[in-house]
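Changelog note: in this version the structure field was regenerated for every chain. One regenerated record is shown below for reference.
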Amino acid sequence: MSVSTPLRLVRAADLLGLPVVALDSGEDVAEVRDVVYHAGDRRLVGFTLNKRGTFAGRLRHVLGAGQIASIGRDAVMIEAQSIIEDRPDQADVGSDGSDVSIMGLQVMTVDGTVIGSIAGVVLETGSPATVVGYELETPDRTTIFLPIDIQVALSSDRLLVPENTAAYVHQDLVGFGGAVAQYREQTLGSTGSPDRSGGELPPPSVDGQGGVR
């Protein structure tokens, strides 16, 4: 039996306001303003930024996911300040018309059970950083985490997931990291992509912690 490598996960909300530090100088050159996620592609676009210092304000440049050297508990690291120079020709991130806003979307199983609503996303802080899960608020105001690849369908009204999703839901990031790794092992197989047909998920080998009630 293979042993999964533990994932280093962080809530997107915990990154807001963190300094962006250039490795070549050790200087704080910006701070994280927001996390940009493309729901249609399930892809981390990157971070919008604020300037640091006396004349703080929004930077026009967007730090792409591929430009991030590492993400730590106290800072986001980039190779050099030149990566985020505020160039006049650098456009803000905008919608291309194919994406939807996920914040507040209702999450429902294919048999009609409401799990909660999306409150944010969860990132794996590897290189490159990727989005691996959704942070949900349940109807009873509990925070839970759901693997992103469980997603069956996404519309402007709701996100649909399979019936036995509760087996992969956790209330803490430590347990959730294990659920994401396990889901990948049991569903990716030789195809390299998860089954999103909406059928039954494979049963987990361990009981989910803090599953949906």
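Spot check on this record: Residues 88-98, 190-213 have pLDDT under 50 and may be disordered. The helical segments are 173-187.
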